[in-house]
Inverse folding.
């Protein structure tokens, strides 16, 4: 940038600007518009202005001089991704929105487990039993454990509190099944205990203590 | 004569000075006695009354309508039939001490040798209150209209906060259970049962009369109970009144996961505890609260999984307060 432009910028700042071809009717014309169009001159002008401010003592420490450029850049950069995507809350973004978002995102895995458990529970009830292979032989068929006991489909789902981050998606199906297995097994054991109760009432109390080395 | 009057007056004055605290105590005791009487009436009605009823069972957001028939045959054996009306056709038929569980198609049917029908109301409700009086108290208070009938309201409260409470509404005329709510100590209702119609038939209800020939499904057997527990981690604390019913080592159904299994009961509520090797079981530590709560906790390289109709907090305590003990050869 020429020195002339700098001078002119300085002059403009101090209200001493004069166009080179002095014309009473149109005082500011060619030179001024050239000056205003020149980026370097603009930068120089804002630097001078800042210097002036500082010297007069009315500059503020954190005055953001020109964010317009950066904002423009940012918009340019983000224009494409934001077109087809909902604003992605990032951890660095402050504010309630981000917090709400992270609240939603974090337990997603655990909710998924619980919900799918409930789903399995429902499915296993509704599933019509197809193989009708004459189950009723005699009363003494040994492993009747494939049966599903009645109370076994309690909804396992609501008020889920998961204390640790859940493992990968791949394991969730397996875990869901395991949860269900525990629930069903519990129901089955209660039913079986009803039977042992029968036995104990019939033939005095003896079967209750199973393992003598077990003290509780 | 005047002496007597003076004596009586003195006696009254003496009594009156103690009357206020005594009265409230007395009233509480009366309510408790009344509660027990009502509870035993209910147990009796569930065994001996001939009735047909429709009802709704609600657990969380799940609602299941049922029909319920009951009658006694020769005043000796009681018969009961439950039909679930939503989803797959499920039925429970009980004849005295044999109960048969059928579901659509019959492939999952099984027989239990038990004189109570499992899945509807706690088996303890069929028996005298004295069986559970040590850990629960029952209070009769007021009444209201339930299922179009005059009902007596009972509160079945555990003596500590480790268990759930029950609210019961009984028919004043017959003692029959008309409504039941199971709730947390904080009052959140987890399970409800509400009769929507109820009629005493005075004779065996029709569906129970012609039972002629029906298929007896195979009897359900547990795995061999005689295998002793194997793992060093063992339960060390239980809420008051819970007693160990089962302690055995077996493979967990379906998964073949080697598991030490414990069953505890206080007469009304059952708690199951499963202990497995921490490397074999991959569930995260979790707590599910519902009609059946569940806590899964990693302790000292093992995993303790506790399931039961009690608050999650209770299950957590049981899982936490486990201890490494010597198995078999020790102690």
């Amino acid at each position: 940038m020429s020195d002339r432009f700098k001078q002119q910028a300085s002059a403009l700042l101090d209200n001493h600007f004069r166009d080179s071809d002095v014309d009473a009717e149109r005082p500011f014309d060619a030179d001024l518009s050239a000056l205003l169009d020149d980026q370097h001159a603009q930068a120089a002008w804002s630097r001078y202005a800042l210097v002036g401010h500082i010297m007069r003592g009315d500059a503020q420490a954190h005055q953001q001089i020109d964010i317009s450029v950066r904002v423009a850049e940012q918009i340019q950069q983000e224009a494409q991704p934001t077109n087809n995507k909902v604003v992605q809350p990032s951890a660095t973004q402050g504010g309630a929105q981000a917090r709400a978002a992270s609240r939603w995102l974090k337990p997603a895995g655990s909710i998924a487990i619980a919900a799918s458990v409930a789903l399995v529970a429902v499915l296993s009830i509704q599933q019509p039993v197809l193989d009708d292979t004459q189950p009723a032989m005699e009363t003494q068929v040994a492993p009747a454990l494939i049966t599903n006991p009645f109370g076994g489909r309690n909804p396992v789902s609501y008020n889920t509190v998961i204390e640790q981050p859940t493992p990968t998606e791949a394991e969730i199906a397996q875990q869901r099944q395991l949860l269900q297995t525990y629930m069903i097994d519990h129901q089955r054991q209660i039913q079986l205990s009803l039977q042992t109760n029968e036995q104990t009432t019939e033939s005095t109390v003896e079967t209750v203590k199973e393992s003598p080395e077990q003290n509780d | 004569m005047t002496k007597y009057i003076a004596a009586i007056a003195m006696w009254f004055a003496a009594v009156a000075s103690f009357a206020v605290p005594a009265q409230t105590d007395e009233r509480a005791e009366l309510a408790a006695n009344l509660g027990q009487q009502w509870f035993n009436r209910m147990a009796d009605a569930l065994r001996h009354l001939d009735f047909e009823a429709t009802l709704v069972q609600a657990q969380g957001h799940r609602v299941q309508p049922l029909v319920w028939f009951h009658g006694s045959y020769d005043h000796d054996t009681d018969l009961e039939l439950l039909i679930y009306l939503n989803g797959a056709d499920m039925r429970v038929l009980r004849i005295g001490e044999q109960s048969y569980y059928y579901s659509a198609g019959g492939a999952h049917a099984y027989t239990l040798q038990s004189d109570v029908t499992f899945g509807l109301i706690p088996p303890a409700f069929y028996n005298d209150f004295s069986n559970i009086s040590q850990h629960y108290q029952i209070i009769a208070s007021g009444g209201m209209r339930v299922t179009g009938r005059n009902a007596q309201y009972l509160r079945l409260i555990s003596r500590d906060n480790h268990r759930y409470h029950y609210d019961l509404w009984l028919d004043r005329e017959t003692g029959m259970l008309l409504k039941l709510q199971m709730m947390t100590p904080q009052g959140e209702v987890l399970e409800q049962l509400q009769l929507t119609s109820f009629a005493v038939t005075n004779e065996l209800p029709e569906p129970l009369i012609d039972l002629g020939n029906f298929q007896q499904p195979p009897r359900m057997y547990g795995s061999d109970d005689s295998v002793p527990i194997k793992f060093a981690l063992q339960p060390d604390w239980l809420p008051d009144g819970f007693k160990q019913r089962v302690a055995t080592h077996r493979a967990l159904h379906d998964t073949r996961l080697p598991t030490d299994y414990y069953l505890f009961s206080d007469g009304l509520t059952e708690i199951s505890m499963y202990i497995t090797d921490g490397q074999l079981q991959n569930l995260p530590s979790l707590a599910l609260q519902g009609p059946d709560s569940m806590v899964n906790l990693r302790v000292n390289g093992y995993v303790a999984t506790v399931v039961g109709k009690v608050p999650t907090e209770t299950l957590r305590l049981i899982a936490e307060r486990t201890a490494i003990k010597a198995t078999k050869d020790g102690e």
